[in-house]
Design goal:
With 321 residues, the protein is an all-alpha fold. Helix content is 69%, strand content 2%.
Length: 321
């Protein structure tokens, strides 16, 4: 069993590793000319960020992996969560590499990225059910009822993984927005894991909190580095994996509510423009809408962090009920 001291130690090790990697990683990314290209249709104020080093998510992945292996390296669930996180990190790294180094702005083709995410979803469900005693039941919060989804559970997990990874990716559009929101969500899942008695997974979540907070020192406004798809897809994969392993797939909608709203704003915007020719938001994802409304970047990020914290409290209350 993991005690509070070990949880804190896991967080501190991940934090220390992430912080220590900054002075090493940032000059390396600059030297390799791994600079972020800013899309022209985005807010004009963002053009000043062009050339900022990207792919910094590798700092988070190393920090989370090191801390997890030190403190809970013997846990099958943690190994599976790491596999899903790092697998998505590889997909994101390839996508970033194509965009940044090979100068192909679209990166991986949609079907290529989708194929990788499908393989990750199948691996997550197959391994958890075949080797870790999992099942195809879906838990309904508050009602405390379960529904056996059978083969449809695989489809559900695909949507959970793809939806979460892409939602975190879309949220990563302002300095510190995705990293701060992820820290809040991972902390909430630490508590959820403790409530459910899944202590090793709680330690993994604390490693994510530490890794992201360390990265946030360099990613907060004005950002010295961006996490890129390398970080955003990996963090989304980690969050989705923990939700699946704790059987809280539906609760993830609440804990990751900010990510959900960001993704929905894009879907609504595209659907509205294609069907009516009109835009619902000034720009999507929705954080850009508030920027164009006159909010400062810091204000948008702070408000979104607070919304994430509030939603996490709601989710925790639902678990306790």
């Amino acid at each position: 069993m993991i005690d509070i001291q070990q949880l804190i130690s896991t967080l501190l090790v991940a934090l220390a590793v992430s912080l220590a990697l900054g002075p090493i990683t940032l000059p390396m990314l600059r030297r390799l000319k791994f600079g972020q290209s800013i899309r022209e249709e985005g807010p004009k104020s963002h053009q000043a960020k062009s050339g900022t080093p990207t792919m910094g998510g590798i700092m988070i992945l190393i920090a989370v992996t090191v801390a997890s292996l030190i403190f809970v390296g013997g846990s099958q669930e943690v190994w599976l969560a790491l596999f899903i996180m790092l697998g998505h990190g590889v997909i994101g790294f390839i996508d970033d590499f194509i965009k940044v180094v090979l100068k192909r702005n679209l990166g991986l083709k949609a079907r290529q990225k989708l194929l990788g995410q499908i393989l990750m979803a199948v691996a997550l469900v197959y391994i958890s059910i075949t080797y870790m005693g999992g099942d195809t039941n879906l838990w309904i919060p508050v009602l405390d009822q379960t529904i056996d989804c059978g083969i449809f559970y695989y489809i559900l997990i695909f949507f959970v993984l793809v939806g979460t990874t892409n939602a975190v990716n879309l949220t990563d559009g302002l300095d510190g927005l995705a990293s701060g929101t992820m820290a809040v969500a991972a902390l909430a899942y630490t508590l959820i894991c403790l409530i459910f008695g899944q202590y090793e997974l709680a330690a993994f979540c604390m490693a994510v909190v530490g890794g992201v907070l360390g990265f946030l020192k360099y990613n907060a406004h004005p950002a010295k580095v961006f996490m890129g798809d390398t970080g955003s897809l990996a963090l989304g994969g980690a969050l989705a994996a923990v939700a699946v392993l704790t059987k809280t797939e539906l609760l993830l909608i609440i804990v990751g509510g900010v990510f959900v709203v960001e993704a929905l704003s894009v879907i609504i915007q595209v659907a509205s423009f294609k069907t009516t020719g009109k835009r619902v938001f000034l720009m999507s994802p929705i954080h850009h809408h508030f920027e164009l409304k006159g909010w400062s970047e810091k204000k948008v990020v702070t408000v979104f962090w607070l919304c994430g914290a509030l939603l996490s409290v709601v989710a925790l209350l639902m678990v306790m009920v």
